[in-house]
Design goal:
By secondary structure, this protein is mainly alpha-helical. The protein is built from ten helices and three strands, in the order αααααααβββααα. Strands 2-1-3 form a three-stranded antiparallel sheet. The protein is globular and about 45 Å long. The N and C termini lie far apart (57 Å). The model is unreliable at 1-47 (pLDDT under 50). The site of manganese (III) ion has 7 residues, from α3. Manganese (III) ion is lined by residues 76, 80, 127, 212, 214, 216-217.
């Protein structure tokens, strides 16, 4: 006899879902090579295989203070980013052509998909990239990348100035980017959750650094003072990580 008893109104698919939930609660893993924390897996809808999940922050939520306060980090990661992940999984489940694709593949062909998929695939990629672009106390650029900054912008200060201008002048919600484009460094910005990896982006390239200038990223501490948030942010940029991205992009 089935563990669910006889005559229950479960359809076979629902029984599978129930069974998987129980299994996941017990051991915290999902089949298909995807490892998830139990709490995280419990939030998933299970319309199909779980493709995307919220990555943990690489530091504590208070580790970037005073540049970014703990409450902002908590809400930004566990609510906003989680919502992009959940809604991306929903959008993929509703789009057969999107299934089985990596996040980068979705972005590269995003013009073929729904606005929901575009916004949430972008949201998931951008935030994952953003968390890894920061480090408590920041770090220094490696030599090759420091040279590239000098030839592209004359100095780090000039780079920060140009990047800050792009971040301040992006109207409404969006992102500022430092990208590698045809071997050279460039600065641009994008609206909403778009990014330079998208086929429909105004400026395309390989992102090396990105700054979230949505109000949810800074409003609790800075309110309307976006420029102050940008200035403070430089103290926690992980330039070593940006240098690694530069090296990889130059090789690719
Ligand atoms: Mn955000």
């Amino acid at each position: 006899m089935s563990p669910f008893g006889k005559g229950l109104k479960f359809k076979p698919k629902e029984i599978m879902k129930q069974h998987r939930r129980t299994f996941i609660k017990a051991v915290g893993i999902v089949t298909g090579g995807v490892i998830l924390a139990p709490g995280l897996a419990g939030q998933s809808a299970f319309a199909g295989p779980v493709e995307f999940s919220l990555p943990p922050l690489p530091y504590k939520t208070n580790a970037l203070e005073p540049a970014i306060d703990m409450k902002t980090m908590e809400i930004h990661h566990s609510k906003h980013h989680q919502a992009y992940v959940n809604n991306l999984n929903k959008a993929v489940a509703e789009s057969p052509a999107a299934q089985g694709k990596s996040l980068e593949q979705l972005l590269a062909g995003v013009s073929a998909f729904s606005p929901a998929l575009r916004n949430n695939a972008g949201g998931h990629w951008n935030h994952t990239f953003f968390w890894k672009s920061m480090k408590p106390g920041g770090s220094m650029p490696a030599k090759d990348f420091a040279n590239a900054i000098e030839s592209g912008f004359r100095s780090m200060d000039e780079l920060k100035k140009a990047f800050g201008e792009a971040a301040k002048s992006r109207f409404g919600s969006g992102w500022a980017w430092l990208i590698l484009k045809q071997g050279g460094l460039e600065i641009c910005s994008s609206p909403n959750q778009d990014n330079p990896l998208m086929d429909l982006a105004e400026v395309k390239g390989t992102p090396l650094l990105g700054l979230d200038v949505w109000e949810h990223a800074y409003y609790l501490k800075y309110q309307n003072r976006r420029a102050e948030y940008i200035d403070a942010w430089w103290s926690i940029v992980d330039w070593e990580e940006v240098s690694r991205r530069y090296d990889l992009a130059m090789k690719g």
